[in-house]
Prior knowledge:
Chain A has 406 residues and is of the alpha+beta class. Chain A contains ten helices and 18 strands. Chain A has a four-stranded mixed β-sheet with strand order 1-2-3-4, sandwiched between helices. In chain A, strands 8-9-12-18 form a four-stranded mixed β-sheet. In chain A, helix 9 runs antiparallel to helix 10. The first copy, chain A, is elongated, with a radius of gyration of 23 Å.
Amino acid sequence: MSNSYLPIPLKEKILREKHDQLPQIMRKFNIDCWLIFARETSTTPDSAMNFVVGSDVVAQSAFIFFIKKDEIRKIAIVGNFDAETERNKGIWDEVIAYDLGIEAALLATIQALNPEKIALNYSLDDYSSDGLTHGMFLVLENILSEFQDRFVSAQPIVNVIRSNKSETEIGLIKEACQLTEEINEKISTTLDIGQSETDIQARFHEEIHNRGFGFSWQREQNPAIDAGKDKDFGHVLPQEDNFTVEGQTLHNDFGIKYHGYCSDLQRMWFFGKKTDLPEELKHAMDTVLEAIRRAAKRIRPGIQGYKIDKIAREYIISCGYEEYKHGLGHQVGIMAHDGGCMLGPLWPRYGNGPKQVIEEGQVFTIEPNVKTKNHGMVSMEEMVVVTSTGCEFLVKPRKDFIYIHE
Amino acid sequence: MSNSYLPIPLKEKILREKHDQLPQIMRKFNIDCWLIFARETSTTPDSAMNFVVGSDVVAQSAFIFFIKKDEIRKIAIVGNFDAETERNKGIWDEVIAYDLGIEAALLATIQALNPEKIALNYSLDDYSSDGLTHGMFLVLENILSEFQDRFVSAQPIVNVIRSNKSETEIGLIKEACQLTEEINEKISTTLDIGQSETDIQARFHEEIHNRGFGFSWQREQNPAIDAGKDKDFGHVLPQEDNFTVEGQTLHNDFGIKYHGYCSDLQRMWFFGKKTDLPEELKHAMDTVLEAIRRAAKRIRPGIQGYKIDKIAREYIISCGYEEYKHGLGHQVGIMAHDGGCMLGPLWPRYGNGPKQVIEEGQVFTIEPNVKTKNHGMVSMEEMVVVTSTGCEFLVKPRKDFIYIHE
């Protein structure tokens, strides 16, 4: 049976953990009301709902978290057909079901609460707290026209709810990483020269299917498979006519979804004995591994993400390579790219993410790469969880290529 | 292996079919530029991208379709790591890759094209053409500040691109329906009294897994399983402690995803002989079936959706039942709820959908239900495709309950 979905008892446990954290988080950011407004979330999901709602909705729905003094009040306003699902969860103080339209019930509820701020799920910088669509924002502006000047971004709340993983979540991500390595090990025994990238990917897909796992990202690009010295790593589909070659490398970028949580690891193989490894590849791999070690050594709560990226980036440049054209690492959770604080450079495309501060319970990838002159690219990707004083690897970090024909 | 994903050759075929339709659609609605603006679409998908882009993106990306005189120009502006994927597709006239931020390339491109309108994927009424997030809208407003007054909703384009299915798409949906009925038939042979709803759902899940299908909507609610006279149909989870009973009904609402396209059918079983069926259930089923027949008979291109809903709704009321508290039917495609024109009443929560006009190639459900006084609810759901003169059922419509212990 399928192991890719979060089992209901675990989902309920995580929902309770997140609801328990919420009052403290809302107080910390001085937001008295958080409003999630969504419809047809199978088509257009607001991924923040995974943590505090836990199921899809069909009709326009409002989920309201309101803090006053020491109390939190949690209200769901949903279409009649979604109401029983919400009532059965037991996480709402009140479930209001409507037949025709949400307008009257939503306006009356907000008027009664009269919050100072209304935090909505939009963000210019952070995709993971940007689940409110523009159309739904306009709908909300119409319904709550008298409250428009109280609208603020809910990004601070969503970031913490999502990023700071509970023990249950960390356990699941760790399991996903272990299972990913299990598959890597198993496929390693089947690798040989003259195999096409699409062929190799198909073997990974078969393992994933047989074990009932899901994909951390789009299946066609997962795992990314890059054979030989001429393939540029990145989000490029495996090719039918590109083959593994004696004396050259194979690279994958692979993540599974297990019980709703993701892994994201990169590994490399070399077709030949360790003693045959070209000096250039050895130097490149040593550089990548040392960059990972240096970054991991400095990760701890309170430091901004870009400072970690800088350590790895400058080390790689100091070793004579061009800098990698992406961030050093991103958070991982229910998605491979989980948003929030990131270990990235201060480039416009990463917005505010790299300026955010690392906190305990966050899970990051560390994934530098370098390009050699004659033997292609070298990359490795590990995953760490932030502890109170530093970070820990979620699976044993690799120390080298995996040698085929050793 | 997995059969839930659209195989690449079929995906490429559908992309070509949609790209071919596009100039005509854009001209019809007098829109010279359609701009899709998205990032990290694994987390926050813009579902319209399925039809004209065909893969996920990571960094901020702009997909531009521009019509001038008889020519269409198609430009993708993507982060460097997404560029090769786009180039390999062969559907873009130009792929612009950026390293740091999209701002300069996007502004320069729009300045050069200087379109009269810039259609964006937002809609107050229609969730399926509302894929642009509010945060990304604000980003775009900043980048294209000098063009803000040219922004319009792309809903008319997205609706037609998505709704008016190509032959390839209709073929896939039909197959999904047939496979759904195959599973219904198979599970029918295992049904008996004293079985719990969760138990029955688990058998459906096993079939789906073994055949490598996906789910049309959230797995926990798919199929919905409703046993006995006291269960209110709707999006309610199956219960462990609710059992099938002799002389009572079982209902499911079940949809699979096969090669990327969905089914959505409701069926009902009766535990007993046909001669044991209570008169009340017989009357209710006859009413539902006749409502479906009357609606299907009137579906044709050019008629507004709400008029079809009205036919079924008024017929049901005329038979002495309360009206159903939802729309008569919705479109089906890559999602079970596929947006656009719908067969629904003119209630606020359905927005503009029911006012839209039915067109050839659209696929609809027809799903009225009624509530009996003593024997619970009765429902049935069929799927039809609109032809040039009317509509055709995608699988043979059911004529009755399926009798267990006949």
